[in-house]
Amino acid sequence: MDVFGLPLQTLYLYILMVSGILTLVFVFFGDVFDGLFEAIPVPFLQPTLILAFLTFFSAGGFISEKTAIVGSGLGAVLSAILAVVLVTCLNVFVLVPLSSAEESLSYTEADLKGRTGEIIVSVPKDGFGEVLLISNSGKISKPAVSFDEEEIPYGTRVLVVEVNKGVLSVIPNEEI
Length: 176
Hints:
Layout (H helix, E strand, L loop, with lengths): L1 E2 L2 E2 H27 L12 H21 L4 H33 L4 H4 L3 E6 L7 E7 L2 E9 L10 E8 L2 E6 L4
Parallel strand pairs: 5-7
Antiparallel strand pairs: 1-2, 3-4, 3-6, 4-5, 6-7
Helix pairs in contact: 1-2, 2-3
């Protein structure tokens, strides 16, 4: 069967090569294109999903034509169904969890208020030291000052009272 004067197998191969190249370009320069596609309100019309669909569809169609197990029409339908299933799995099990995981690892300075940590550089009465805050997502080391303007020695467990311009004001916390 010929489409646009090309055998269907060749057309599938061209689509596979072009969608593969565009996928690589999008992987490397995706941050540049993200702003262009934020206006699209429909989540399944994102470039990642469209390129993945084209790649899966053309690969399935090419294999179908190459092996000639089924006819061209049925091969195209089966390739489309397979591509929809694979793209749905890719979206549900990979892309959605990755997008939510990225946001969950970030924190703001206000999030640090009320957390406990340990002094890793002694805090003098009128100077700066350093505190280590440990959480499930990792360790954060921040500069610290004494909230009560008293010296806090190394190894003391502390409570963050307030945060001002990235500097934590801490007090000793003996209840831990």
